Amino acid sequence: MNRRWVLQFFKPHSTSNSSNLPSLTQLVGKWYITHTTSDFWRDKRNVVLTYTPLDASNAGPASRPLLDDLITYQTLTSAKVKTMRGTDTPSPSDPRAWTWRGNGMLKFVTSHCQILGYGEAEDEEHGGGDWLVIWAQRSIFSPAVLNLCTRHKEGMREEWVVGVKEVCGGMGDEQLEKTVGSIYRVTHE
């Protein structure tokens, strides 16, 4: 069986060379949140995050565009699709970080997020695909959250999820080490 990882990990709260980051083209589009530590998603299913660049005239720091951040999901007991939307503003000092601000009734909610890892995993069972590890720092509204996202709803092989947990748990960040232990699989149909 072909098992190859092409990956890059970054420590939380550190800056990194932007040449090692996923490009805007690699980041935009649909991502399935297949694993998370957020209690909010425990009674939800089909959680999908879609990044769309906003008008280039609305560029954030370092001329990086603002992103529309749309999450769609369903509860476990309903067919109705719900949404949560926000805007991601790039950090002026860290090319892999941004501040999410909710739209509408959530406009007073913010969260500082960072890409902790990304790459490509190939395997025969899932056909490979891009994956992304996103760390949302603790805020006044929520605890710290770790999300593992892939381009397909099946997610990564479980042994790869274990590997991501080991890497994130060994980064030397106490809050991340406590958080990664509570990661669970999100239901996708």
Task: Write a short abstract of this structure.
By secondary structure, the protein is mainly beta. The protein has 3 helices and 10 strands; from the N terminus they run E-H-E-E-E-E-E-E-E-E-H-H-E.
Please explain how this structure is put together:
This protein has 189 residues and is mostly beta strands. Helices cover 12% and strands 41% of the residues. It has 3 helices and 10 strands. It has an 8-stranded antiparallel barrel. β2 and β3 form a beta hairpin. The longest helix is centred in the C-terminal third of the chain and has 12 residues. The N terminus is likely disordered.
Structural class: mainly beta
| Helical proportion, percent range | 10-25%
Strand runs, count: 10
Low-pLDDT residue spans: 1-7
Order of helices and strands: EHEEEEEEEEHHE
For this entry, give a set of tags.
41% strand; eight-stranded antiparallel β-barrel; globular; disordered N terminus; 3 helices; mainly beta; 189 residues
Structural topology:
Elements: E1 4-9, H1 24-27, E2 29-36, E3 44-53, E4 67-75, E5 82-90, E6 97-102, E7 110-122, E8 129-136, E9 145-150, H2 158-169, H3 174-180, E10 184-185
Antiparallel strand pairs: 1-7, 2-3, 2-9, 2-10, 3-4, 4-5, 5-6, 6-7, 7-8, 8-9
